[in-house]
Amino acid sequence: MTQNNFLTKTLNDTVMTRRSFLKWSAAIGGTAALAGGVDFGLKAIEGAAAAGEEQTLTVGCYHNCGGRCILATKVKDGTILRIVPDPTPASEETDEVPRAIPCVRGRSQTRRVYAPDRLKYPLKRVGKRGEGKFERISWEEALDTIASEMTRIKETYGNEAFYFNYAWGVTWTGPDGSSIIQRMLNLNGGYVGYYGTYSEAAYGVAMPYILGGYAGNSADDVVNSKLVLLLGDNSLVTRAGGDNGGYWYMKAAEKGTKFIVVDPILTDTVAATQGEWVPINPGTDVALIAAMAYVMVKEDLYDKEFMATHASGFTEDTLPEGAPRNASYMAYLMGKGYDKVEKTPEWASTITGISAERITNLAREVASVKPCAIIQCWGPQRRAYGEQFVRAVPVLAAMTGNIGIHGGNTGQLPGGGYCPMGGIPVPPNPVQVSIPCFMWPDFVTRGTEMTVEKDYIRGASTGWSANAGDTTTAQQNKDLRLKSNMKFMWNHGGNCIINQHADVNNTRRILEDDSKLEFIVTVEVGSTPSTMYSDIVLPGTTGFEVDNIITGEGHGIKGNHAWALFNHKVIEPMFEAKDDVWIAEQLANRLGFGDEFREGHNTREDWLRDMVAGAQASVPDFPSLEEFKEKGFFKLQGGKPFVAFEGFRADPVANPLSTLSGKIEIYSPILANLKNEEIPPIPTYIPEWEGVSDPLREKYPLMMMTTHFVARSHSTFETVDVLQEAHPQCFWINTLDAKKRGIKNGDMVKVYNDRGIVHIPAYVTTRVRPGVTNMPQGAHFTPNADGVDTRGCGNTLTNYRPTPMAKGFTAHTNLVQVEKL
Amino acid sequence: MDTREWALLLFTILGQAAAGLMIVLMIVRTYIAGKADSALADRLTDRSLYMVVPMMALALFASLFHLGSPLHIVRAVPNIGSSWVSREVVIAVVFVAFAALYTFMQWRKTGGEGLRVVVGWIAAIMAAALVYAMGMVYMISTQPSWNTFATPVTFIVGSLLLGVLGMAVGLVAGYTANGNKNEGKATGLFQTILQGLAMTAIVLLGIEFLVLPIYMAYLASQGGAAMQSLGMMFTSYGTVLFFRLFILFAGAGVLAAYLYRNASVAEKEKTLATLTYSAFALALVGEALGRFLFYATHYRIGV
Amino acid sequence: MAKQLAFSIDLNKCSGCKACQVACKDKSSLPIGVRWRRVFQYEGGEWLNQNGQMVPSNVYAYSVSSACMHCVKPICMEVCPTSAISKRDDGIVLINADMCIGCRYCSWACPYGAPQFNEEQNVMTKCDMCFDLVDKGERPACVESCPYRAMDFGPLDELQAKYGTFADPAPLPDASITQPAVVYLPNKVTKSSGNADGRLMNLEEL
Ligand SMILES: Nc1nc2c(c(=O)[nH]1)N[C@H]1C(S)=C(S)[C@@H](COP(=O)(O)OP(=O)(O)OC[C@H]3O[C@@H](n4cnc5c(=O)[nH]c(N)nc54)[C@H](O)[C@@H]3O)O[C@H]1N2
Ligand SMILES: Nc1nc2c(c(=O)[nH]1)N[C@H]1C(S)=C(S)[C@@H](COP(=O)(O)OP(=O)(O)OC[C@H]3O[C@@H](n4cnc5c(=O)[nH]c(N)nc54)[C@H](O)[C@@H]3O)O[C@H]1N2
Ligand code: SF4
Ligand code: SF4
Ligand code: SF4
Ligand code: SF4
Ligand code: SF4
Ligand SMILES: [Mo]
Question: How many helices (H) and strands (E) does chain B have?
């Protein structure tokens, strides 16, 4: 089949599977009215550029895996032929600056662009919300409706009824993306912002209390490590392509670095680095760390001098003034702390499921092999008491003296460089109040009752950064209140309305009542469970249909260099898809502030040129827009791998951390002040609800995690057929647990708890700890007539119960029962 | 099993039945040749002959459903030097051509008796070659459940069994159609031939009964993919295996034995007819089940 | 006579991501169900109860990426009734779609499951070693796609000189059957063909 045939076929399929958008509604029992043909797509193809000539153009992979890998596409006659990797010639690749070869997801992009479930035209909800009945409308009508609803809601409830939802479908791209919409919303009088992330809420909030903020050696520094201890880090899947963590871990393994991976799953990271697997009971890492610290103390294996000069609260004599006696970490370890329990390997063994002997050996090895990079990732903090884990890991890094040296690390995630690029300017938000991003359903149901002290609502959002969720600073106005419940939501390339948020069935109930949250706008490329709950759905362009500039963050886990990428428009927008700049500008025009919105940017290129100017201001040899576009990318080399806290290590007084004491604050006086048992001043093991020792296990015996999956970036790529084929969605269960239930590999099973039911094929494996299961997150919630999810959406079963301090998602802490279907 | 394998099942079973019939027919004719005139021989055997070509045509037609591009079948000719599939295709076509020619000549009684016998024998030899080629097709080194002596042996034995019982069907039909006009000579010949056929069927069934356990023991001894096949025969397809054995031995076998005992009782024409037709039908079903197992339980070495 | 071309895969560098499989499907527009390159997930070991504690015993897992091996002794070619399957001078084994009658004997014979039937075109298809790219001096799409650079491509003897001659990790068949033009570099846990205690895990292969 030629590529052209492939395309025509996909388009034909598109017509036929137009109904797939409506399958969901059909399942619920509604019928749908969706008029129209497909002539738009065909027209787009006819009108495409450069007939006959094959071109190779760079595009970026801009999803929230964080990777920003460099893709190129072969295009001909306005049709994508295929994806090829980073066009840097292989001969120019060096160990320091590798080519950014995309992962399996990036590889499949063509099928996302030409997906049968692409949204084709603006849609308006006609049935009850969630019922899935939509009608095709014109862009004119869609934009008019949104503008008039915005005006009505602003007049009725004020700007504090507006919310811009957490969403990562188009980010770190420009000029499209969140910023351009936020610019428009702010010119309209603003909206309630959010702070923190679904990803690393606990990390973002808790880390500053021990290390003052984010700092890790760059990922390429692991090649200098003799030993790497990973805790809940599956970078071979979650930082897979380009020059992200996964790449550097493999480089290190190749050079002989030994990996030890603490994870309930024998992940691809364990397998690929051929590391030692320490299969731990979920939610118990803090106990493991305490016991390792105990062994190091008992056997005198830790860096006493470093701890004396660089840490506070490790021992009694370094406790800050005013701290009670026996409040130090040492007291906690030695059984003199609040619980009077010695943190022996035997103690930890019963909790973690790891033998005392293994714990002891692990402690000895980690303490003696130098340099050792101790790295935590975000899985274990997306749990009931995530904050404790976040602050426990750096203690090990400090005790072993691995902070501030090559091949060591701070106990945080590795850091990494990114290319500074001008962004779309967002004028200040007139609404000076924000909520923890995960708590938005509460904003809908009881926004005006939310408080600073209980719900951690805050002043202006600082977005995503260290201290982003600092809920304790003195200047917080304790009387801060939201003036309205949420009435308007803009969901921009996000699936957190339904799919990606905890407890789907709970969220559905809240949203089905459209007298509460009155109006939801979603901009999407495909049909998702969230579009089903929207009132207006706008078809957005994919990156392949519009010029963009992509910069990266790589979730911090990158080598010490970075790039900016020119993302070419390689095909005409499919169907009636429109880009974000156009959408925002059209609304600005209707709302009467078009000129302020444009601020002299009359074309898309004007915005692009602005971004380039921003980069040129900080990187002198950054090329002109024309050169940049021609080459497709600009790589910035950072030289040697970066070492975090080098200065602090050398002289902690001259180069203090940004903690209160300037030291590694193992005992935090600020947290002590909270006097909250769930937020203790030292990193403490707190048994989880729905965790290993919860009595609820009698009813729901299996712990269930919902990890990030190789075949998707969250729910993005979910409907890509070649990825579904390569990595089928399935439920991981240990062979012994499966045997007890008569389940064989590939059998359909029913997974359930009080919150929902899922039908899904079982993956019966020795690669997961007995008692632990996993339902990779991101599959589209697809209920049948009985409300049973038939696709394997983990959030059918997760709990809308946030972490104590960051109010973060506890996605991995769940109990379930499983039966063979 | 998918459509394509069903097509193969029909092709091999019908093809082997036709081939077996052709061979048995020529043997029977040779036997008759010294004992009666050709008119009687024709009367006793022509009905069997008329079954050959339709069966084979049906077989070939079915085989097309196995191919992805049946219209390209001619392309299979050139590789006759190396491929058993090519040989199978070519031999099948030659066989059906000669069988058709022979049938036509018998029907019109043209071409002279001597020539007819020669043409008939060419068809029979082609039939034998076809059965052999069919077996060889499955002698693929990476298919241990196929790549054994049992494949050609069961193909040959199965083919002869269907041929023998098919012959009996034609014989009985030809004999009974003549009503009471059968003279003593005809009756005598009819009875000896029928008895001979019934006896042969029992012997052939015996061979099958012998081959099966040896085959299974062989598979068990091979381990790996062979063992997988064996496992499937007893687990997923255990019932089929049971029915196959039951139908073939308790069904066809017992009927053949009855046939043998009753063949000489001339008055029982009706019973004879019922016995013969049932035995053939059961053998056909039994063999088809066997072939189903053959296709359903093959397990390739590798991934 | 050109040299026999071959793949090599370093199992020390393979994460089982299947970028190679998807890159191949992207390059050749393969429909669902046809996977010219497949990645087998293989695992073994068990969990034991030791004094009330569950401990893994020799639990291991690895992945084996495999496509048509462009064998030195291509059994597919031997059994093909037409001359649809041919082996080029450089060893690339190709199926000529115009010659194929779709009889499937090659797929019954090939121990690598390489020939796969394309229901849309009604012919047998398989990895063509991206000969169009190779003829232009480029490397096959799958080889280029591996994020961890686990794959290499070149003349078999050169790859063997570089990486050794191991060609049959479990769950692949014994290399003596068809003499595949491939080199695998085993990792610490790789088992050899015929290993009985491991399991092929891929749900899509069930
Ligand atoms: N159970 C469970 N749930 C989780 C997690 C977990 O670990 N377990 N993790 C959480 C985390 S860390 C996060 S960050 C969130 C992420 O949640 P989201 O940010 O909602 O991420 P996605 O599900 O990928 O949704 C992005 C949407 O953007 C769309 N999109 C892609 N490209 C474009 C484009 O170019 N334009 C437009 N307009 N749309 C586009 C995609 O189709 C997709 O539906 O999920 C959270 N949910
Ligand atoms: N392929 C892919 N990559 C992605 C994403 C994606 O959706 N798909 N999403 C991106 C985003 S937005 C984010 S936030 C990151 C998320 O990256 P992470 O948070 O690191 O990813 P997770 O899969 O949630 O968790 C990582 C590992 O933690 C383990 N884990 C869970 N609980 C515990 C525990 O209690 N103790 C220990 N030791 N381990 C535990 C899990 O088994 C898992 O293997 O990934 C990014 N990268
Ligand atoms: S690693 Fe992330 S950015 Fe890179 S190709 Fe994969 S999904 Fe895209
Ligand atoms: S792309 Fe590379 S790492 Fe991924 S499965 Fe293929 S060979 Fe393995
Ligand atoms: S792998 Fe199979 S298809 Fe490929 S050459 Fe070898 S035998 Fe033929
Ligand atoms: S399917 Fe095609 S290539 Fe394979 S053996 Fe038959 S004719 Fe040859
Ligand atoms: S060489 Fe080409 S055709 Fe063969 S598996 Fe690799 S990408 Fe596919
Ligand atoms: Mo995230």
Answer: 10, 0
Share of chain B above pLDDT 90, in %: 57
A-chain CB neighbours of C27 within 8 Å are 82
Residue A339 has pLDDT above 50, yes or no: yes
CB atoms within 10 A of CB A800: 20
User: Residue A4 half-sphere exposure, CB side, CA atoms within 13 Å?
Assistant: 8
CB–CB contacts below 8 A, B to C: 103
Residue type, C184: Y
Order of strands across the sheet that contains A536-539: A134-136, A123-125, A536-539, A519-524, A488-492, A162-164
CB of A543 closer than 6 angstroms to any ligand 1 atom: yes
Take residue A749 and report the two structure tokens written for it. Answer: 């099973």
Would C161 be classed as within a structural domain? yes
Show which subunits contact A, needing at least 3 CB pairs below 8 angstroms. Answer: C
Is residue C100 situated within a structural domain?
no
Q: Is residue C140 part of a domain?
A: yes
What is the three-class DSSP state of A230?
strand
Handedness of CA A17, A21, A23, A29 (dihedral sign): negative
3-state secondary structure of C153: strand
Domain extent, residue C50, equals 5-67+128-205
Residue of the nearest CA to atom 1 in ligand 7? C129
CATH number for the domain harbouring residue C148? 3.30.70.20
Residue corresponding to tokens 């903020």: A213
Helix axes B113-137, B84-108, angle to 10 degrees: 160
Most confident of A28-37, A38-47, C68-77: C68-77
Q: How far is CA A667 from CA A311, A660, A685, A693, in A?
A: 9, 11, 14, 27
> What does the alpha-carbon distance between residue A185 and residue A391 come to, in Å, rounded to a whole number?
37
Q: Per the structure, how many domains does chain C have?
A: 1
Nearest Cα to A370, choosing from A320, A336, A344, A408? A408
Residue A26 has pLDDT above 60, yes or no: no
- The answer to the question of residue C38 being in a domain is yes
For residue A43, what are the contacts with CB-CB under 8 A and spacing of at least 6? none
- Across the interface, do C109 and B143 touch by the CB < 8 Å criterion? yes
Rounded to the nearest whole angstrom, what is the distance from the C-alpha of residue A233 to the centroid of ligand 1?
A: 20
d(CA C105, CA A665): 70
- Rounded Cα distance between C188 and C121, Å, is 42
d(CA A758, CA C88): 51
Residues of C in contact with A710 (CB under 8 A): 17-18
Q: Give the pLDDT confidence of A627-644 residue by residue, as tens digits.
A: 999 999 998 877 789 999
Q: Are A366 and A396 in contact (CB under 8 A)?
A: yes
CA distance B19 to B11: 12
**What's C80-148 look like in SS3?**
CCCCCEEECCCCCEEECCCCCCCCCHHHHHCCCCCCEEECCCCEEECCCCCHHHHHCCCCCHHHHHCCC
Cis peptide before B54 (omega within 30 of 0): no
Our CA-based measurement puts residue A197 at a distance from the nearest CA of chain C, in whole angstroms, of: 27
Contacts of C147 by beta carbon, 8 Å cutoff, 6+ apart:
A101, A102, A103, A240, A241, A242, A246, A247, C15, C17, C19
Angle at A82 between CA A76 and CA A87, to 5 degrees: 95
For A649-662, letters b (16+ CB in 10 Å) and e give beebeeebbebebb
Compute CA A131 distance to the chain's CA centroid, rounded to the nearest angstrom: 29
Burial A699-729 (b: 16+ CB within 10 A, else e): ebebbbbbbbbbbbbbbbbbbbebbbbbbbb
Task: Return the residue matching tokens 């009824």.
Answer: A161
A710: Cβ below 6 Å to ligand 2? Answer: yes
Cβ distance of A103 and C204 shorter than 8 Å? no
What residues pair up with C44 in beta bridges, in sequence order?
C60
Q: What is the ipTM of this complex?
A: 0.92
pLDDT digits (tens, 9 = 90+) for A657-703: 999 999 999 999 999 999 999 999 999 999 999 999 999 999 999 99
